Amino acid sequence: MRAFSQTTEDLARQEIELPSWAFGNSGTRFKVFTQRGVPRDPFEKVADAAQVHRLTGLAPSVALHIPWDVVDDFGKLGEHARDSGVRLGTINTNTFQDDDYMLGSLCHVDERVRAKAIRHALDCVDIMDVTGSRDLKIWLPDGLNYPGQADLRDRQDRLADALGQIYARLAGHQRLVLEYKLFEPAFYATDVPDWGTAYVHCLALGERAVVCLDTGHHAPHTNIEFIVMQLLRLGRLGAFDFNSRFYADDDLIVGAADPFQLFRIMTEVVRGGGYDEGSEVTFMLDQCHNIEAKIPGQIRSVLNVQEMTARALLVDRAALAEAERAGDVLAANAVLMDAFYTDVRADLAAWRESRGLPADPTAAFRASGYAERVAAERVGGTQAGWGA
Ligand code: RM4
Ligand code: MN
Fold first, then answer.
1. Helices 111-131 + 74-84 axis angle, to 10
2. Is the pTM of this model over 0.90?
3. For the segment 65-77, what is each residue's pLDDT rounded down to a tens digit?
4. CB–CB of 106/141 below 8 Å?
5. What whole-number distance in Å separates Cα of residue 324 and Cα of residue 145?
6. Does residue 214 have its Cβ closer than 6 Å to ligand 1?
7. What is d(CA 290, CA 385) in angstroms, rounded to the nearest whole number?
8. Distance between CA 209 and CA 230 in Å, rounded?
9. How confident is the model at residue 386 (pLDDT cuts 50, 70, 90)?
10. Which residues contact 88 (CB under 8 A, 6 or more apart)?
11. Is any ligand 1 atom within 6 A of the Cβ of residue 268?
C-alpha cells in the first residue's frame, strides 16, 4: 500500500462544491422542520458555505439554484462570495416548481411551455456570464406517470432540440451538464432516466456537453463505479452530485449510507484520471439536512469525501495491476481492501493542522460560536427553504 504522505500532494488540490440549498430549511413531503439561524437570502447562504471552506479548506465554491437564489445583482453576490473566501460555481436550472411544468418542461408538448423552459435555461446562462460560472446544470422533472400519457419518442426529439438551443448559447469555456435520474417526480417513465440517455444527448450536442452523476439517482444495487468508469472512458463524466441513499433519492450525507461504495467510486475516479491535475470532473454535494444541523452536516460531508479520496489514493496501483495480470483474484481484491480498511482520520487531522486548518473542523465550528451568533442575528425575514 502507498503511504499517507504519498497522497497529500493530490489531496491538497481537492475541491468540493457546496449546494446553496443545503443551508436552507428542507424536509420531506411530510414535513419541513425549521432550524434557528437558517439563511434568509443567498448572501447568508454563501456566508454559511464559507464557514465550511474556512474550516476544511475543501469547499471553495457554492452552487446556486435559480430561481431560489435570484438576487438583483449577481455581481454583488459574487463579490460577497470573494470577500467571504469562496466563489460562485455551478448554476442549476429549476423547471420543477412552476405550475406550467406539471406535464414537463424541455419535453413539453406545448410549445409555449417548452419555450418558457428554454428561456429559463438561457437566463441562467446570462447569470453565468456575470458570476463567471463554467457549468450550467440541467436536471429535468420531465416524465410520465401513466403509460400512454404522452409519446416517449416525441419527447426525446423535443428534448434534443431544446438542449441544442441552450447549448448554442454557451460561451466557449462554459459547459452544459446534463443530470439523469431514474424516477421521481414522474414514476412511470423519466425523460432522462439514465447515464446512457444523458450520454446520447451530450454526444449529439458536442464536446462541452457532459453528464452529471448524482449518486442518489439509481436503482438499488446499481454498480455506480461502473458508470463512473464508462463515462470517464468516454470522456463525458462532467460532474458528481454527491449524497447517499438507503432507499430512493434520500439526499443524505455522502458516505453515510455506504462508505465502501464511496470508496469504490473514488477509486474508479482516480483510476480513470478523473482526479488528475487539470481534470474537468467536478465534485459537488447535492444534499439536504432535514434533521441535522446544516453547517456541521456539510462539514461532515466534505470530510467524508476527503477520507474516501485519501483511501482511494492509498491503493497500490502497481501491485493491483500485477495481481490482476496474474489472475490472482484474492491478491487483487486484498489490494483494494487494504486501502479501504486503512483509517486515515488521524493522518488527515495532523495534515490539516500542518496546513493551518483545525485538526477537527466540527469542534472548531462549535467553538467558533458562529451558529449562536447567526441564530441571534437572523431574526425576522423569511428563512430560505427548499423551494423558496
Ligand atoms: C434533483 C436533482 C438536482 C437538484 C434538485 C434540487 O433531484 O438532484 O440536482 O438540483 O433535485
Ligand atoms: Mn442532483
1. 40
2. yes
3. 999 999 999 999 9
4. no
5. 46
6. yes
7. 11
8. 16
9. confident
10. 46, 61, 62, 64, 74, 77, 78, 81, 131, 132, 133
11. no
Residue in 181, 242, 287 to alter for ligand 1 test, most ligand atoms within 8 A of Cβ? 181
Whole-angstrom Cα Rg for the chain? 21
Confidence class for position 197, pLDDT limits 50, 70, 90:
very high
- Residue range 46-65, pLDDT digits in tens: 999 999 999 999 999 999 99
CA nearest to 197, candidates 269, 140, 136: 140
CA 166/CA 176 separation, integer angstroms: 8
In the three-class reduction of DSSP (H, G, I as helix; E, B as strand; rest coil), residue 94 is classed as coil
Closest CA to 160 of 104, 201, 203: 201
Question: Ligand 1 in contact with 249 (CB < 6 A)?
Answer: yes
Quick one: the chain helix, strand, coil %, rounded to 5? 45, 15, 40
State whether the Cα torsion 240-235-164-189 is positive or negative.
negative
CA–CA dist 33, 289 (Å, integer)? 10
| H or E stretch at 321 | helix 317-325
Total residue count of the chain as it appears in this document: 388
Give the Cβ contact number of residue 211 at 10 Å.
26
Question: What nine digits make up the cell of 164?
Answer: 441544442
pLDDT reported for residue 195: 98
| CA 141 / ligand 1 centre spacing (Å) | 9
pLDDT digits (tens, 9 = 90+) for 89-120: 999 999 999 999 999 999 999 999 999 999 99
Task: Quickly list DSSP for 174-219.
Answer: -EEEEE--SSSS-SSEESS-SHHHHHHHHHHH-TTEEEEEETTSS-
Q: Residue 370's CB: how many other CB atoms inside 10 A?
A: 18
Contact 48, 299 (CB under 8 A): no
d(CA 304, CA 266): 11
Atom of ligand 1 nearest to the CA of 214: 8
Of residues 364, 319, 368, the one with CA closest to residue 57:
364
Alpha-carbon gap, residue 350 to 347, rounded angstroms: 5
